[in-house]
Design brief:
14% of the residues lie in helices and 32% in strands. It is α+β, with helices and mostly antiparallel strands and 334 residues long. It folds into two domains: 2-167, no CATH class; 179-333, Jelly Rolls (Sandwich), CATH 2.60.120.200. It has a six-stranded antiparallel beta sheet with strand order 5-16-7-12-13-14, with no helix packed on it. A six-stranded antiparallel beta sheet has the order 6-15-8-9-10-11, with no helix packed on it. Strands 1-2-4-3 form a four-stranded mixed beta sheet. A hairpin with a 4-residue loop joins strand 8 (220-226) and strand 9 (231-237).
Length: 334
Amino acid sequence: MKKLLFLSILFLTFQNCRKNPDIGASGEYLVDPVFEPYVQEFIAEGAKRGQTIDFSDSGLIVEFSDGSVQTASGFCYVGEHHVVIDKSEWTSLSEDVRGFLLFHELGHCELDRGHKNEKFSNDVWQSIMRGSPLQGTEVWIPIPFFGFRKDYFIDELFNPSVSAPSWANPNFTLTSIPDGEKEVVQTAENINRINERVGGIDGDYEIKIDFNRIKERTNRTKLIWGNTTQHYYIDIFPDQGFNVSGYFIGVRKEDSDNGLFYSTNTININGEELNNIIIRREDGFEKVFMNGEFIFHIDQQEMPISLVKMEATNSAGMLDPELEINGFEFSKIN
């Protein structure tokens, strides 16, 4: 149950817009103060893109749910400019994800957008308007409404025909770093856990880990790098019996986990089972390579990296000593 709860905050669910039989179009502007900053941001982002958003004629209601959201995070009552948000879920979300949720629902209510469930070739959604119905493991694929990708998603929200961004088909290659261009800071081998303080590195670096992942259903293997306040993570899940095996890449920010990428593939990466992860900061990005294959890139972290941690835990949060980390190397790149 704990694991299911953890996974549930990695994505948001949306139901189609629908008519509210109890409320008519009143033209009133009744926005809960909690949501007002996000509504004003929506108006401002529209103005940047040549669209005037004016609720003076249509009105707008944005309120917490009284229980009517059911299994969705939020929904819009079609034709009535009325948005309801699940309150219990809202409290667990970071600012980025809260903005994403409100922009999605206002996309329905103000821009008359329906759901758009198309992905780029790198398996990233093309729009923040993705929503039900989703097929199979698609429900676990998050939307990286974060960092350098965020502007594109807002562009697409107001203009569905916008060109694909450059990050839709990245092609980074893992090349060797000459010994004279890097300084090995820490190494370890044949251990079952990494919990290393690396001294606050704010330049380029490389993390290399060779390991044998945990395959027991009740366990997961987690790698984090960054610091205790904010960090990126990779969560590797074995077959759980409910179609969520695979790995998530995300960011822990404001005490919330925000999933940025998900893949079911752990057994055929460059023809092998997942056994090697390389994190390399260069060119202003944090690049993730698995078995030498480029997987995903993220903004460079805002604060110096001071912590690298990798461990396996069971459903009760207890460490699993069976994790085999065959080699760990942390290097500064000159």
